[in-house]
Amino acid sequence: MEDGLRVATVWRLWITTFCVFQLMKSVAGLDYIVGANFVTGGLWTNEPGPSGTNLTLVHQYELWAKSVNISVGDTLIFNYDDAHTVVLVSTQEMLDSCNYTTYEDVTSHKPPTKYTVKSVQPLYFVCSVENHCQDGQKVAITSISGGSTPPVVSPSPSASSEGRSLQSVRGFRCDLGLYGARESEFQ
Question: Beta strand pairing status for 164-167 and 152-155?
């Protein structure tokens, strides 16, 4: 009986550790390639979009920004060649007019540039290379959520004493392997 209890304890510890690592991955944030699926090659570029479309580059970046759910802690990945920059301007007006006389240069020394979202404030990115912003190489990310909510322990969907689930708001679910145990054993 003692060996069976030891095996069950080790099993529970292993499952709990696995679940914690999975939660850490989901809370760390997601990666988003700027322009993916909307701009040719998913690149940070000033080239027009896929042939056969009537969408302007500005519109393609707008569609991309509306298609993603960016949260604090997520990473924006700008894939490009050395002919581009990634600069952060502070207002929508600066983005619209391509006025980047004052900006924060977030360009990496070597592509790609990875930018981690730090707050819920809107982000406005442009390329500062001559005429690239005017060609449409700019994107506004105006809808940013506060990030992941810490994980919570809640009863399993059956609401019985068969076990517990560890969940996060981002939809992660990991059963702890406590099935068959009485609820009072774990309180």
Answer: antiparallel
Tens of pLDDT, residue by residue over 30-62, are: 999 999 988 887 889 988 766 556 678 899 999
Determine contact, residues 67/37, Cβ cutoff 8 Å. yes
Q: How far apart are CA 79 and CA 112, in angstroms?
A: 5
DSSP 85-119: --EEES-HHHHHHT--SS-EE---SSSPEEEE--S
Domains of the chain: 2-27+149-186 (no CATH), 31-145 (2.60.40.420)
What's the predicted TM-score (pTM) here?
0.64
CB 138 within 8 A of CB 125: yes
Give the helix/strand (H/E) hosting 75.
strand 75-78
Decide if pLDDT at 8 tops 60: yes
Q: What torsion do the CA atoms of 176, 31, 71, 143 make, to the nearest 10 degrees?
A: -140
Q: Is 113 exposed, middle or buried (0-12, 13-18, 19+ CB in 10 A)?
A: buried
Total Cβ atoms within 10 A of residue 16: 15
164-167, strands of its sheet edge to edge: 152-155, 164-167, 173-175
